[in-house]
Amino acid sequence: MPHDVFISYSSDDKLTANATCSILEEKKIRCWIAPRDLLPGQEYGEMIVDAIRNAKIVVLIFSSSAQKSKHVKREIERAVSKGKSILTVRIEDTMPVGSMEYALSNEHWLDALTP
C-alpha cells in the first residue's frame, strides 16, 4: 500500500513513534514504520530506501537516542539526498549536533517536550 509518511526513530523511542503513527493514521495519513512494514525475506536496507523514496514526507522522532542512532542518521541522510521534507518532532530538550545538525538545519521543527 502506498504511504504518505516515513517515520524515522530510535528503537528507544518506539512507543512515541507508534503513537505518532496511530494519530496520523487515524487522520487517514498513511505511514510506513519499521518493523511493522518490513516484508519477510526482503533486504532491510533496500526496503528502507524504497520507503523513503516513495514517502511524501519524513517524520523524525528526535531525541538523544535518535541523535546517537546510526540507522536514524542513515535514514535522514537518504531523505535529504532524495529531496524529502523532514518534519522533526523533538521529544527531549536536546539539539542535533554533527551530521544531524547539518541535515536538519533548514527543516521545520515541532517541540513535543511535555507529555
What does this structure look like?
This protein is α/β, with parallel strands linked by helices. Helix content is 42%, strand content 19%. It has a 5-stranded parallel β-sheet, sandwiched between helices. The longest helix is centred in the N-terminal third of the chain and has 13 residues, at 14-26. It is globular and about 35 Å long.
In short:
The protein is 42% helix and 19% strand.
What helical percentage do the residues reach? Answer: 40-55%
Q: Helical region count? A: 5
Most strands sheet:
5 strands, parallel
Read across the widest sheet, the strand sequence of neighbours is: 2-1-3-4-5
Residue stretches low in confidence (pLDDT < 50, at least 5 long) are none
Give the tally of β-strands: 5
Topology at a glance:
Elements lengths: L4 E4 L5 H13 L4 E2 L11 H11 L2 E6 L1 H5 L1 H12 L3 E6 L7 H7 L3 E4 L4
Parallel strand pairs: 1-2, 1-3, 3-4, 4-5
Kindly list the characteristics that best describe this protein.
115 residues, alpha/beta, five-stranded parallel β-sheet, 19% strand, globular
